[in-house]
């Protein structure tokens, strides 16, 4: 069979819906200034769908730093991969400041979080080693684990007892191969909003020999007394051996980093293929990240405002009877019961009649019969936004229970 003919016949689990949902439910276009209110299909919507947690996307100091760096350096500098011709004092300064912020010896910049952590996982382990990872790990971790040529064991989400079972299996295996064990989990799980049980995992080091890697994409900048993440919040930062953070969430930019002991970072610097063979981060992104990190450190009021909105939204929704699962972070999932057509009609009603834009998650990401609406509160939302949204959710929940969304999906494209 011709390869392209094969692709035409099987468009994939998501691509099979593209004809009906593209541009509205998938690949929507939000326009205008990044913030709580943006344009969608020509109308202003109250937006709960961006990970701009502490509001840095349009912070005036950030915009100024970005613009000045772009005007001075352009987007091309530095040219080449950092190992060959693309290094700079600014890149190294950012690495030092990031390491200090998350209380590690050193850090390495990554051009993108997704491919960066994939490549780092690949670099850290060889075929003699065993990876043990949480079943609800982000796709970037799953894809990194798939690169691993050795054994891998998965434990049910946050199930510490089962993690012990997998560690026992892994320990037996590496004793025969002279290998090592890497445990991978997340600081904050981006869909459910609950935290990884980092302190409990670290405690298992007293019983088993392993190293711990934590993807803290949603915890970096939002969790902990200084914003250093979920491990800081749980009081176990020293027990995290490899800390991953991204600029795409609280920093509202592009790029990522891994922080660890200096010898581990040096190893990654010379062995992480996605960085060795890729052009360095452009200077405006590096200088912009330095400004963003400065604001994370020196303006805790931004994080405090985020949590004011988070608490108002989550407490208000719970008081109204909504199920938010086990969230322990700004990520705010709202679980409802209904079919995929009902979910489509509900979202259409929410966007067109209430002018609220949020993400919808349905099967196979969540079980059949479950609709998850995912809200991301930010420091630039207001208490009035929260109040309006709670009232809107009460209305759509009532319509769902009364069967008003059971009819065929509205034509929205």
Model description:
- The chain has 413 residues and is of the alpha/beta class.
- It has two domains: 153 residues, Aspartate Aminotransferase, domain 1; 239 residues, Aspartate Aminotransferase, domain 2, CATH 3.40.640.
- The protein has a seven-stranded mixed sheet.
- Helix 3 runs antiparallel to helix 12 and helix 4 packs parallel to helix 12.
- It is globular, with a radius of gyration of 22 Å.
List the defining traits of the structure above.
single chain; 413 residues; alpha/beta; Aspartate Aminotransferase, domain 1; Aspartate Aminotransferase, domain 2; 4-stranded mixed sheet; 15 helices; 41% helix; 15% strand; globular
Average pLDDT number: 94
CATH architecture of the largest domain: 3-Layer(aba) Sandwich
- What is the CATH class of the largest domain? Alpha Beta
Main β-sheet, in a few words?
A: 7 strands, mixed
Question: In sequence order, what are the helices and strands, one letter per element?
Answer: HHEEEHHEHEHEHEHEHEEHHHHEHEEEH
Distance between the termini: 34 Å
Query: Which strand order spans the largest sheet, edge to edge or round the barrel?
Result: 4-10-9-8-7-5-6
Proportion of strand residues: 15-25%
Low-confidence stretches are none
Structural class: alpha/beta
Number of helices: 15
What is the number of beta strands? 14
What is the domain tally? Answer: 2
Radius of gyration: 22 Å
Kindly report the name of the CATH homologous superfamily of the largest domain. Type I PLP-dependent aspartate aminotransferase-like (Major domain)
Percent helix range? 40-55%
